[in-house]
Amino acid sequence: MNPEVQQTLRAIFDAIDGPILVYFVLINSSYLFLIVCAAAEFARHLRRSAHSWRLDAVSSRLLPGVSLVVPAYNEAAGIVPSVSSMLSLRHPRHEVVVVDDGSTDDTFDRLVRAFSLVGVDRPVPADIACEGDVRGVYVPDDGWTRLTVVRKANAGKTHAVNTGINIASEPLVAVIDADSILDPDALVSVSAPFAEDPVRTVATGGVIRAANGCRIRDGRVVEVGMPSSWLARIQVVEYLRSFLLGRSGWSRLRCLILISGAFGLFRRDVLVDVGGLRAGSIGEDFELVMRMHERMTRQHRDYRIEFVSEPIAWTEVPTTLRVLRAQRRRWHRGLWEVLWSYRGMLGNPRYGRIGLLVLPWFWAFELAAPAIELVGLVLVTVGLVFGVVDPVYALLFLVLAYGYALLVSCASLAIEELTFHKYTRWRDLVVALAASIAENVGYRQLTAWWRCEGLVAGIRGTKAEWGTMTRTGFDDTPAVSGAGSAA
């Protein structure tokens, strides 16, 4: 190699080698800290569960009513068992509102056959502005099943959800993906904070787990298991680390800014006040919660947004690289768009911990992480090839970037096993541990690249593409595989 080029490379590495190592120490340490916070929250939850009034609340009717809004676009594969399971949830007063957003398959026909739907003359309020003409409102002909199906012209998931909010008749609204299945007590648990603190609580979120590999019967998860696909197995570990432990940790710190669109519960009056979901937003669930934080702070209101670790929503995760790529590109683009839209809150003491702690963390350790990881990996590899990087440094980089991350994943698995113990077979735990290791070999690098693609697309402002995402649907087979779709 040309001595001048080698000298230049060495100068570059001398300038960034320390900061890169510090970055990975900080990001993985912060994840570990969130896991510790989550563990403390789980311990508190388990202590309270032994003397909890939650199950008694079902009979005493202390819980506020809930409208489950289910946006559906080409969901024929799983719509009937999903709606059936939602109707049979244990809750004193809840309804299911399915919004068929112009499906081109037989989603609506399956609902008509399964629930004997008939058209009714029921106006849809216009509390939130929506696009897509409503073509009809349908209810079961038995007169008592609390199901409403709204058929409308396709306008996207955002307008489908807002239409469901408009027609919802209960004070709380849960937005549920059509491919999700809830545990029987999930709705009771996720609505309990509203009964405990009805004035301050404005939103709660529940745990999302991968249904792939689980046994489904009559719209219920009757046996939890690991999927057969390694791609899905790695996502099981990801969901555990991010949805269960990460968000529980932020909630413990009263800093939760993201509730998954697959399972969130909101006060209807607050949803109407902020204008519902914002059209054109890729990360509409994230954007909604950020708008709530901004609005509540500006109004000087004392409020709570909580994550509840007990309720479970099961959803299918991608089993092909094509679908996974589309999902991760979309997620990261949505992250960029929301953070950029609310950049005025970054570092702003007016917004307390959200502005001074959470948003800087998301900018540094969520948005920038994939780019920094790839740059570090490429530079270390190039430096080793051309002899300008010490092999000891390269080993230290791998230990801090990937070994430390593996420790975080193992801690997540251990805490889950000690608290909720969803995976009861030793074989599943061994597979989960193996998936934690496999995640660092190829998978992380691929998803980091896809996330960078989403970031670049967001910065450039290119047209957002949701992509076609197929799923197999829920049935009574031991294994479930597939991927989510979007309207």
Name its key features.
single chain, 487 residues, alpha/beta, Spore Coat Polysaccharide Biosynthesis Protein SpsA, Chain A, ten-stranded mixed β-sheet, two-stranded antiparallel sheet, 14 helices, 15% strand, globular
What is CATH's topology name of the domain at 32-64 and 171-360? Spore Coat Polysaccharide Biosynthesis Protein SpsA, Chain A
Helix count? 14
Rg over C-alpha atoms, rounded to the nearest angstrom: 23 Å
Distance between the termini: 53 Å
Largest sheet: 10 strands, mixed
Taken from the alpha-carbon principal axes, the silhouette is: globular
Q: Uncertain segments of ≥5 residues (pLDDT<50)? A: 477-487
Note the run of SSEs as H and E.
HHEHEHEEEHEEHEEEHEHHEHHHHH
What is the helix content? 40-55%
